[in-house]
Hints:
By secondary structure, the chain is of the alpha/beta class. It is built from 16 helices and 14 strands. The protein has two domains: 76 residues; 253 residues, Alpha-Beta Barrel (TIM Barrel), CATH 3.20.20.70. The strands form three sheets. The chain has a nine-stranded mixed sheet with strand order 11-10-9-8-7-6-12-13-14. It has a three-stranded antiparallel sheet with strand order 2-3-4. A two-stranded antiparallel sheet has the order 1-5. Strand 12 and strand 13 form a beta hairpin. Helix 1 crosses helix 2, helix 4 runs parallel beside helix 5 and helix 9 packs parallel to helix 11. It is globular, with a radius of gyration of 24 Å.
Amino acid sequence: xxxxxxxxEFNIIVTEFSDGRLLIFNSLRCTFxxxxxxxxxxxxKIESISMDALQNQKExxxxxxxxxxxxxxxxxxxxxxxxEIENQRMKFDKSALVLTIAPTLECNMACPYCYETKRSGPxxxxxxxxxxxxxxxxxxxxxxxxxxxxxxxGEPLLAVDLIQSLSSRFIELCKKKEVKYSASIVTNGVLLxxxxxxxxxxxxxxxxxxxxxxxxxxxxxxxxxxDGSESFERIVDNxxxxxxxxxxxxxxxxxxxxxxxxxxxxxxxxxxxxxGKNPAIYVAPVVKYTEADxxxxxxxxxxxxxSEIEAALIARTYGEDKETVSNQLFPQRKSCFCQATVYNAxxxxxxxxxxxxxxxxxxxxxxxxxxxxxxxxxxxxxKWLSYKPDEKCWACQFLPICLGGCxxxxxxxxxxxxxxxxxxxxxxxxxxxxxxxxxxxAKENHEG
Length: 448
């Protein structure tokens, strides 16, 4: 049987060097390499080449390396069908039950860009019991072997007692059913002192996401405490006291409102505080989810500016944790864009309403169900489970690491929005290549 190949549809030319070499990345296999002129010549005419006809061992080796790394694929291999099958497999995989639970939607902050529908009051005992019964029923499904809970809000630590009581019941239930339990939390960090961190540790919470939006002059205007006090120092002190107990990720929300001061923050966190591994630091663009007055005066950061800021962050934190930062530079293939499109994943608010997306929590009109009648999901759940890339997406070389972009944005705008994933991917890969050259040169100089 003759073996014939074609170029992968998901090869991204990152850089074309003046000597003809290519810096190339395959987004389906997430492989990255330098293609020399000899290999490039074979690559460009690969469909007219048969492995059986290759007499030269050098040619055979080059074709073999391209094949092993996914830059070329068998002529009869349908990459798009493979991606679609993987997407459907992951979407309806029941091995894990993934829940985002808001024990309260009340918050001690009033951030101007917040998208949530405000409601007060913690989850009632009745709703807690309905939640536990829902989890118990779902864990009875054959093949469900993992339960992951993300505590969310509002500010979840305003209801830390509920986190304790529900965690205790979930952990005991999972032990009984031989199901693996794990948990994380999204918190503004104001209440995350060491005592609270110890409580979370007992609740098997291992990871925490906390937002810091700039140095005090920026952060305290954006992350506004309702009692009028400032939050920057409290959050930084709390992170310091809890970082040996939890794996903490510092999220920095970026828009034009804090863009100018962001490099001061990155210097402070990475150089003065020596953060970078734990806590890790990452940046995220502020997205307009509401018509709040804030968005009349503050515009989204440009894709170019965001990419430059992220590159600066990578450069600052690389020395602190080379392995982790290097791994972050390489994009990962997605089987689903996010949990919103996964059958066995739900967001649950303090009144027992179920949603598919974090951005809709508290907006009852968008609920796909309610704990009291969880067996009767709303037909609106179908728009999430049927979400898929369109023809334009399928023609894009970045598809495997994007899968059509944010489904929430698609449902709001009626079109796919991949955000700045292309710019970020290219910037990261070029940075990875730069690091490779620096390491190679340092090694050669040492040996010399």
